[in-house]
Amino acid sequence: MGLFDKKKKEENIAVADTDVTSNVDTGRRFSVIIDGITTMLDGNGSIITGQLAGKIVKGDTVYVCMPTKKPIKCEVQAVEATIDGRSSIVDEAEDTQVSLQLTLPDDADIKKYSIVTNIEPQEKINPKVSIENPELAGIIYGLAHYAQDNAFHGTVAYWASHAHFLTPIKMDQEPEVNEQGVTVIKKDTKIGFYMLKSTIKLTGAPENQDNMVLPLFTDWDALRRWEGLASDGSKIHTQILSFQDVYAMLKRGNAYAGIAINPFNKVPCTLPIPYLDTITSTPGYQAEFGPKDGAPQGNVQEQKIPAGQKILLGVPKESEENEQIRGKLVEYGQSHDEIKSISFLTKIEEETKMVRHLVVLEFPEGYSKDDMKNHMEAIYQELRPLAHEIQAIEYALKGAIPAVDNVVTQHADKMIIYTA
Hints:
Layout: E1 2-7, E2 14-18, E3 31-39, E4 46-53, E5 55-57, E6 61-65, E7 72-83, E8 86-90, E9 92-94, E10 97-102, E11 115-117, H1 134-139, H2 150-161, E12 164-171, E13 176-177, E14 183-184, E15 190-197, E16 212-216, H3 220-224, E17 236-242, H4 243-251, E18 258-261, E19 269-272, H5 273-281, H6 283-289, E20 311-314, H7 320-334, E21 341-349, E22 355-362, H8 369-383, E23 393-397, H9 402-410, H10 412-415, E24 416-419
Parallel strand pairs: 16-18, 22-23
Antiparallel strand pairs: 1-15, 2-14, 2-17, 3-4, 3-11, 4-10, 5-9, 6-7, 6-11, 7-8, 7-10, 12-15, 12-17, 13-14, 15-16, 18-19, 20-21, 21-22, 21-24
């Protein structure tokens, strides 16, 4: 186990900070990977079959989770389990093949490799609420059994790319809690990300280097399984990372050969960087997180205002989405010493009424255009999952457009969100 140090310069990076022994949910949790479904002849419910991980009880409320669809909330009406090689109707079952009668709606179109879980999926991340990724936590239990099925790997790819992970961090000083009750890292804090050594040779890893992986956890229950992490009873500090955060972090350096999801569960999941490359290159991923409208280079454009075009520049409105974007921009600036400042504006074209985000970057004199473009692309990849209300993102360089510089100077306290 090792640490990768990074210095944080500003006090605005959120931390999921809690005592590993006193998290909210310490009870029973389970999941079933569906590999078959039958509608009952009388139309009263459906029977699904699959491999159960954990303990299920008749009468449990569950959620059926499928990619691209909202989870279906229903109830377990009956359980048939394989026990000692024989199938029996039971009130409860644990870690075995099961058939379940569920109160699914008549129009439910359940697909193979859907996940049944008693953990409610999270629609959005709240730093005050414990992270849960029951879909990903459930699907990876099938890695050994379904490893030869491309459809299964497609499902893994979907849930991995939509996950928000917990990863423990070390800090040289304790964080503080702001007025909103969110724990934030103080100025000049040095943080370190943990490393684990993979016991298997990972595809793409250099022959002469250890296979170090970044440990990621789908929930606090999985993190608690890391024995010795808080053996002295100390509080565990963690950072919440999206898949896009993780991928960008791994691709910016060569410290890691891949990721380890829930490495201390019964079925750990180790994915090398080439596997992650495959995920990000799929049509589905590119459609959701990649370039829009066929634009090259991830829709990254350096903004140049044509003569005669009227635009309005303003401070982005206060919203949860824009606050997340601001935080991501500041975090990126803090991680790259070559960026001198970042400004965040809203741009409106008066004629078309088109609204865009405008990010203004300042680099040292003589910094290469290619490197600037690489930063723009990397920032776009991190902002794209957060941009919903306004999806178009454009870029300008400080000093290139006097009109933009004048507006930023006049509203520096609100528009300049990061300075080195």
